[in-house]
Prior knowledge:
- It holds the Pfam family ELFV_dehydrog_N.
- By secondary structure, the protein is an alpha/beta fold.
- The chain has 14 helices and 11 strands.
- α2 (33-49) packs across α14, α3 (70-84) packs across α4 and α9 runs parallel beside α10 (285-293).
Amino acid sequence: FVHVLERLLEPERFNQALGPYKGGLRFHPSVNLSIMKFLAFEQTLKNSLSSLNLGGAKGGSDFDPKGKSENEIVRFCQSFMEELYRHIGPNQAPDTPLGDIGVGPREIGYLFGQHRRLTSQYEGMLGIKGVQWGPSNLRPEATGYGVVFYAKEVLADLYKDLKGLRCVVSGAGKVAMYVLEKLIAFGAVPVTISDSRGYLLDDEGFDYGKLALLRDIKVHNKSLREYTKSYPRAKYNHDGKPWSVKCDVAFPCATQNELKHADAMALVNAGCQLVIEGANMPCTVEAIEVFRKSKIVFGPGKAANAGGVAIQGLEMLQSTNHVQWNSEDVDIKLQEIMKDIYQKSLKAANDFGIVKGSPEVLVHGANIASFLQVAQAMLEQGCV
């Protein structure tokens, strides 16, 4: 498979051996070609773990929506789509852009509107559309919920339950917020959340009321320090990371390479037993090696956060058939998807001699299962 890997590393736009391109758009000052390539590579493998026929792609710009006026954001989205529309659509190599950092329902809406104006087509290819103007009930909760469902599967095999477990979470975007929400629903005790300025610690744990306050703070682009005005026992740590906080489970949900070697050592000293990636590759290779040596079970993002794109792939069927699932249906399907991804990873690891109790079983299993799925399709199609 070496020649297949070499081919896979140089993208078409990225890889559609398994199906139409599907991935997110990111608007953030850090965006460059290198980041887009690694995100698209990871997205290709992640999508292959789902039971759907989906390829992988990623796109974006170093445009920063923060601090921009509504008109500036509208104009940028329209200009961006004036080129993107040439490369997407149901009758050519289809692409289905979703939201990522800096791209939410507002930006997707502007992109969709410009695509409709340019093509005179009402095509359900853009993710996170408003329910009021599209048949699909795309769930922004899906990725965050899926991360917790995946953690639940891992813990069940360790004869443990989320209830009462102390959890540290990084990030304050939609993934982190919905991880918090589902952790609270399962009776876990999430105690941290973070942003680019620092992290917030509430030793008593967040509940639904506190979560509502956090969301209000983020909607108004305020510092998490605002939280301490309502809950003075909580502490805001400027320029810090949450990884030294005592915990059972850690959920890095912010961005790539956020959890490094020193952070992993801090987690070991904090008593952490399980790390589940919510973001795309938030743990460095050095950090993962620390987890392996310390026998901390590690769930990689390509498996743990694959639920969102899988649900949105399923909901492409809704758009085609002009039907809409309710929240309960989506939750059930999402749990089934995460269980299937978990079992698929375990089987692939076992097939290659990596035993179930090994701390690296999930990362190797996910890598093997996803790569073989893509590589086999490429070989069959002569894409080498």
